[in-house]
Design a protein that fits this description.
The complex is a heterodimer. Chain A is mainly alpha-helical. Chain A has 4 helices and no strands. The radius of gyration of chain A is 12 Å and the shape is globular. Chain A starts with a helix and ends in a 5-residue tail after the last helix. Chain B is α/β, with parallel strands linked by helices. Helices cover 33% and strands 22% of the residues of chain B. In chain B, the strands form 4 sheets. In chain B, strands 1, 2, 9, 10, 11, 12 and 18 form a 7-stranded mixed beta sheet that branches. Classes of the chains: A mainly alpha, B alpha/beta. At the A-B interface, helix 3 of A face helix 2 and helix 14 of B.
């Protein structure tokens, strides 16, 4: 997957977790929690959806890498580059 | 070998099952009865539908609300607001002799009622609301503070304290006399800052949605499958022995049958005697009417009544029941969609406190006779606070603490379970966990949240 495809994958996950959220105005630089109504349970769901959909494991000590879209994509790139979109 | 076995197909077990199955676990829910729901179940009698448990879904928030427990559970279960089909209450009240506080799903009504009935307490009431601890800020350390002490520090009129405690204790306090302050904050929010609602079709609609979702995700549900023993080997729960003698094994076991009740199932557990089960159980007298309650001038959804200035929240000390306080619930009085129309009959449900042991020790003839006697006493007491509907009664039914014990498996028919809670859901055994009433949350939304969070923390971690 390219970074753009990884971004789409994360967007799809966010949309599944919270279908009511308008993601079109998401700022990739800003932290998710400052712009989306998400709690700790929802954040855990990003991790679990990644595992469910792409078999990507995110260990607990790495959760801090998933705070914004840019950081999430950067963190996932090496883990997902060999997955076909 | 299952990833997870869940004991009990009530709200919490089904919610935990959905989470586990959604994340591709092999999961099986075992339910002893021939129907689902546990405390929040339903039945059909003489051609009519009845709900057990559910008076109202608390924690109701309108469509589009993103914060709060109800919105959270919809996200976590991948359900939509419409799946629950909730219609808000008309108006409810807290009714004491000579003083009544009305409330609805907008806190401003209760505010204005307190200002009207207790003009010198309104500032204190506002202070109380400002000081309520938020759900996410609740910590075990201050959870168990005395609510009576906390309230008397802010509110200086004892009658207002009793009036606030009455509905909040009725809808979720497992302890006698006083209440954990954390639980008070949760229930105050659930009742007054969020609100009350009901699906037109009652609790069966919610249960059906949950079961359908669970099955669509590949979960297995076995009805008429009781668990007689949880097998322990070397400090681990390795599986269960069913009532029929068959055995099933699983990596994790999640039990919703109550804490003490779960420990008793474990074959080498010696901690059972240490923990006490709750004492508070109820009777409910259900009257079907030939007219709608509104036609009789009864416009309240729920009335929490108490017949003196002091509210007594305790097991009846010297009789089968205590009808001095109670809850009158009228399922007709919700703002249902025009498309739904009206419920087929007028219904008045009245709940009062009852003593499990006295009911259990009655022989069959006396049990039936006492049901009749107490049905009349509870209705007598309630009709001091609501229009007298008795001449319109065309059918009745009643459940007792024994009925509750049969359907929930909770010792003493204790509706809100044990007086202490197991917030982290862990037990002495590494892979045996608790969810439901004894994990800490009550009510429909609370139970579902319990199942979700225990599945997240224990069944899905590191899997």
């Amino acid at each position: 997957m390219t970074p753009a495809e990884i971004r789409d994958a994360v967007l799809a996950i966010l949309n599944t977790i919270n279908p009511d959220e308008d993601l079109s105005s998401l700022d990739d630089e800003k932290e998710f929690r400052d712009q989306l109504e998400m709690d700790s349970m929802d954040f855990l769901d990003i991790v679990m959806e990644l595992r469910k959909r792409y078999r990507v494991q995110v260990p607990e000590e790495d959760y801090d890498n998933l705070v914004s879209m840019n950081k999430t994509v950067a963190y996932l790139e090496p883990k997902m580059k060999d997955i076909s979109a | 070998m299952y990833d997870s076995i869940i004991i009990g197909a009530g709200m919490s077990g089904l919610a935990a099952g959905i989470r586990s199955a959604y994340y591709d676990q092999k999961v099986c829910i075992l339910e002893r009865h021939n129907t689902i729901g546990g405390l929040n179940s339903f039945y059909r009698l003489r051609g009519r539908n009845y709900d057990v448990g559910l008076h109202a879904v608390t924690n109701f928030t309108p469509r589009g609300t993103r914060r709060g427990p109800f919105a959270r559970l919809l996200r976590q279960l991948r359900l939509t607001w419409d799946d629950f089909g909730l219609s808000p209450q008309l108006m409810s009240s807290i009714s004491f002799p000579n003083v009544e506080l009305a409330f609805d799903n907008n806190i401003d009504l209760l505010r204005s009622e307190v200002a009207r009935a207790f003009p010198n307490q309104i500032d204190n009431f506002e202070k109380l609301m400002d000081s309520l601890i938020d759900y996410d800020d609740l910590e075990q350390s201050h959870f168990e503070m005395s609510t009576r002490e906390q309230l008397s520090e802010v509110i200086t009129d004892p009658l207002l304290i009793e009036m606030i405690l009455c509905p909040v204790m009725w809808y979720g306090n497992p302890r006698e006399h006083d209440m954990d302050y954390g639980q008070f904050c949760i229930m105050f929010r659930a009742l007054f800052l969020e609100g009350l609602a009901r699906p037109f079709d009652g609790v069966r609609l919610i249960l059906r949605k949950l079961v359908r979702k669970f099955r669509e995700l590949g979960g297995e549900l076995k009805l008429r499958t009781g668990v007689q023993q949880i097998k322990i080997d070397g400090g681990r729960a390795v599986g269960v022995v069913l009532d029929c003698g068959d055995e099933m094994s699983a990596k994790n076991i999640l039990s919703s049958v109550g804490a003490v009740e779960t420990f008793r199932l474990c074959d080498d557990d010696d901690t059972t005697h240490v923990h006490k089960t709750g004492q508070l159980s109820f009777i409910e007298a259900i009257s079907t009417l030939d007219t709608y309650p509104l036609e009789l001038g009864h416009d309240k959804t729920i009335i929490f009544f108490n017949d003196s200035d002091k509210f007594h929240w305790q097991r009846p000390l010297d009789d089968l029941c205590d009808v001095r306080t109670g809850v009158i619930c009228t399922p007709n009085n919700y703002c249902y969609d025009a498309a739904d129309g009206e419920l087929p009959d007028g219904i008045m449900r009245i709940t009062a406190l009852a003593d499990f042991n006295r009911w259990k020790n009655l022989n069959k003839d006396n049990y039936d006779r006492q049901k009749e006697i107490w049905f009349n006493k509870v209705v007598d007491s309630a009709t001091k606070f609501a229009p007298d509907f008795r001449e319109h009664t065309i059918d009745t039914d009643m459940f007792t603490p024994q009925t509750i014990q049969r359907f929930t498996s909770h010792d003493n028919g204790a509706v809100y379970g044990a007086t202490r809670k197991w917030f982290d859901g862990t037990t002495n055994f590494k892979n045996l966990f608790l969810c439901g009433t004894d994990q800490g949350f009550v009510g429909i939304v609370g139970s579902i949240i319990s199942g979700i969070s225990m599945a997240n923390h224990h069944l899905l971690r590191g899997n």
